[in-house]
Specification:
Elements lengths: L2 H43 L11 H24 L5 H14 L11 H4 L2 H51 L4 H32 L7 E5 H11 L1 H6 L3 E5 L4 E5 H18 L5 E9 L2 E9 L5 H4 L21 H11 L3 E7 L2 E9 L3
Parallel strand pairs: 2-4
Antiparallel strand pairs: 1-3, 4-5, 5-7, 6-7
């Protein structure tokens, strides 16, 4: 936090303290004023000295103190819950509702307090937290439904094909076809499980380890070759535009980045479409872009596609479980890099910025 912002926060906290101090001071003044008025009236009417003798100063002060304490106590009871303690009670009640799982709850103060910067900052921060928790809960529920669907489909396919093969009344060609399908569905299951395990592993990783110097260009070409069956079956036009570049990074982790981004580009490119991969040398870092032709990502979806378990395609028309881009984002963050997405004019491009050296 910058020094200027620290001073601003301290100033806001001081003004909040001053606000409560003013309230306490006002209660004290009110109690003293009422007590002094009561003592004066009692003295003037002779209630305190029925024999006509004047009351000494000490007795007057003691009476004022006693009456002030009683009046101050009564005022505090009557106003304490409404003015100084009401926002605190509101905060406690709202936090309790949030802790109980009511993620739609929001913190709201009265008009007067909302205009104060500290209360406004508190409400904005709390409501942002509640909104993030609500989104995470929605994503969790969507993930359970989506992941169950994604897992169930290949399992049902494998079971059905295995039954057909087990009957034994198939030609060699049919048997080979069914066995190939079983193998593909099994690999699909394995890939989904691997992605979830990888995400769990890198989420718990805070320090980048196993950094080495390797050929970035060769690594990307190898990842493209690993996906040959996918892009060749869709007759994708691959456009690789880069020279040879060396980088210092975690080779195994970066491999997951290029596989996920390329697989994503192939998956959402139409049959006969194009997938473009470029590397741009920008002095102290590389800019690697992976793009594809096809449908665009709506602007409101772009901020959420890197959230784990989030799927922009809710129709399940394409394979996936919303984990791949979350893995990519986490790995790029571990490398101190940045990733952004641009989608316009029928082209969607993911751009990764990575330092050349660690």
């Amino acid at each position: 936090m910058k020094k200027g912002k620290i001073r601003l926060v301290r100033k806001q906290r001081f003004s909040l303290t001053l606000l409560f101090s003013v309230f306490v001071f006002a209660v004290i003044l009110a109690a003293i004023a009422i007590a002094a008025s009561a003592v004066y009236i009692f003295a003037a009417t002779g209630i305190l000295s029925p024999d006509g003798q004047s009351i000494d100063l000490g007795t007057t002060i003691l009476l004022m103190i006693g009456i002030s304490l009683v009046i101050g106590w009564v005022i505090s009871i009557l106003l304490g819950g409404r003015i100084p303690l009401k926002p605190i009670n509101d905060i406690i009640n709202t936090v309790n509702r949030l802790a109980a799982g009511d993620f739609k709850t929001r913190l709201k103060f009265g008009k007067a307090l909302s205009n104060h910067k500290s209360f406004n900052e508190l409400s904005v921060s709390f409501n942002k937290l509640a909104e993030e928790l609500e989104n995470t809960e929605m994503l969790r529920e969507d993930f359970i439904n989506n992941f169950s669907h994604e897992f169930k489909t290949p399992i049902v396919s494998i079971a059905g094909l295995a039954k057909l093969v087990n009957k034994g009344d198939l030609t060699d060609e049919e048997k080979q076809q069914y066995l190939t399908a079983i193998e593909e569905e099994s690999l699909r299951l394995a890939n989904m499980a691997t992605n979830v395990l990888n995400l769990t592993k890198i989420e718990n990783q805070t320090i980048l380890t196993d950094v080495s110097r390797f050929n970035l260009s060769e690594q990307i070409r190898s990842c493209v070759l690993l996906l040959e069956n996918k892009w060749s079956s869709k007759e994708i036009d691959l456009q690789l535009d880069f020279d040879e570049y060396m980088i210092e990074a975690n080779e195994e982790l970066l491999k997951q980045v290029w596989i996920n981004l390329t697989d994503n580009a192939i998956k959402f490119a139409p049959t006969g479409g194009s997938v473009m991969i470029e590397i741009t040398d920008k002095k102290d870092h590389f800019s690697i872009s992976v793009g594809n032709t096809g449908s665009e990502i709506p602007e409101e979806e772009r901020e959420r596609i890197f959230n784990k378990f989030y799927q922009a395609d809710r129709s399940h028309a394409t394979e996936g479980n919303g984990v791949g881009l979350a893995i990519v984002k986490r790995i790029v963050d571990l490398h101190g890099g940045e990733i952004e997405v641009d989608s316009a004019d029928g082209v969607t491009t993911f751009t990764v910025e990575l330092q050349k050296k660690k």
